[in-house]
């Protein structure tokens, strides 16, 4: 069978060589350093990512993700309820390096680990979580808040088990998925994350899978889950279907530089590949809002910390600042 990989892999290697050459010559300017919407159309960072080659790179309709969240344009919705996380660590099964990120996968054949409340009308089952990160701490998140970029972003992926019977079915449908987004900022070591970080060297290469059990995903949520933004969007990886109710937490979690360094030690490539490629910058470029409303569960005007101050906000000292 002639696989797409057989065609794409050599292309990928070629692109990687070009990319490496550019990076060495200091001519490569990271897309996240400047105006995102302008850069995303000009620069082809997406082309060096294994997942963004070929026809799948063409985005779909009017509700694509990720986006920039403009705090002052978000609309406070007092109807938004608190979220209910009901996670059973015993449903955690394995870690899989899928060649773009690492997925911590959960048994979703029962309602043992679910998310409900907030903007959601139904109950959604947790199937996996994963992260997106940059090659340095200066960028890496997919969403941004007032154009501020975080070094990484966690996505907890859930599917609507009240309306659908399988993830594969839900992924194609409106209200099929609910994804929680949590920003990561650099600070002190995250004790809950460390168990996962310790296991990562065993899934260094693409397609490696390792058993991983009894991990409570709730430990990766910020202490304040009451403050969030929500909007109608899409998956940020193929198939890019517009089936996602996004719930992006206002408060980031703190992880150490060393923990992020372990993320960056993973590889996009499998053990057999000639040129090994670090798993970094595995985020999608930002997409136009196209008239969508971002709702907030909180009133931004009362709680917003002054710009560039050291005053701790709900997100802790220097929340969201990138140095
Ligand atoms: Zn994601």
Automatic annotation (TrEMBL):
The keyword Kinase does not apply. Residues 303-313 have a biased composition (Polar residues). Residues 41-298 form the Alpha-carbonic anhydrase domain. Its EC number is 4.2.1.1. Keywords: Lyase, Metal-binding, Zinc. GO terms for cellular component: mitochondrion. Residues 303-323 are annotated as: Disordered. GO terms for molecular function: carbonate dehydratase activity; zinc ion binding. Pfam families: Carb_anhydrase. Its cofactor is Zn(2+). Reversible hydration of carbon dioxide. This is Carbonic anhydrase. It comes from Albula goreensis.
């Amino acid at each position: 069978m002639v696989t797409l990989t057989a065609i794409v892999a050599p292309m990928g290697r070629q692109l990687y060589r070009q990319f490496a050459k550019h990076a060495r010559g200091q001519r490569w300017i990271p897309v996240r350093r400047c105006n995102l919407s302008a850069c995303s159309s000009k620069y082809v960072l997406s082309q060096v990512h294994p997942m963004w080659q070929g026809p799948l790179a063409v985005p779909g309709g009017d509700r694509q993700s990720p986006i920039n969240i403009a705090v002052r344009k978000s609309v406070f919705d007092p109807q938004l309820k608190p979220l209910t996380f009901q996670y059973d660590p015993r449903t955690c099964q394995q870690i899989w390096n899928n060649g773009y990120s690492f997925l911590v996968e959960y048994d979703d054949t029962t309602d043992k680990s679910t998310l409900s409340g907030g903007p959601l009308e139904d109950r959604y089952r947790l199937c996996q979580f994963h992260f997106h990160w940059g090659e340095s701490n200066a960028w890496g998140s997919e969403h941004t808040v007032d154009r501020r970029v975080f070094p990484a972003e966690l996505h907890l992926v859930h599917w609507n088990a009240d309306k659908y019977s399988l993830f594969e079915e839900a992924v194609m449908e409106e209200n099929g998925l609910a994804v929680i987004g949590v920003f990561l900022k650099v600070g002190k070591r995250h004790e809950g994350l460390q168990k996962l970080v310790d296991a990562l060297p065993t899934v260094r290469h693409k397609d490696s899978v390792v058993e991983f059990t009894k991990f409570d995903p709730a430990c990766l949520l910020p202490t304040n889950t009451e403050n969030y933004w929500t909007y109608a969007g899409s998956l940020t990886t193929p198939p890019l279907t517009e089936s996602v109710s996004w719930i992006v937490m206002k408060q980031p979690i703190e992880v150490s530089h060393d923990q992020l360094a372990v993320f960056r030690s993973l590889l996009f490539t499998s053990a057999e590949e000639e040129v090994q490629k670090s798993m970094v910058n595995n985020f999608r470029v930002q997409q136009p809002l196209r008239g969508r409303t971002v709702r907030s569960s909180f009133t931004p005007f009362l709680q917003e910390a002054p710009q560039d101050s050291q005053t701790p906000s709900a997100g802790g000292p220097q929340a969201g600042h990138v140095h």
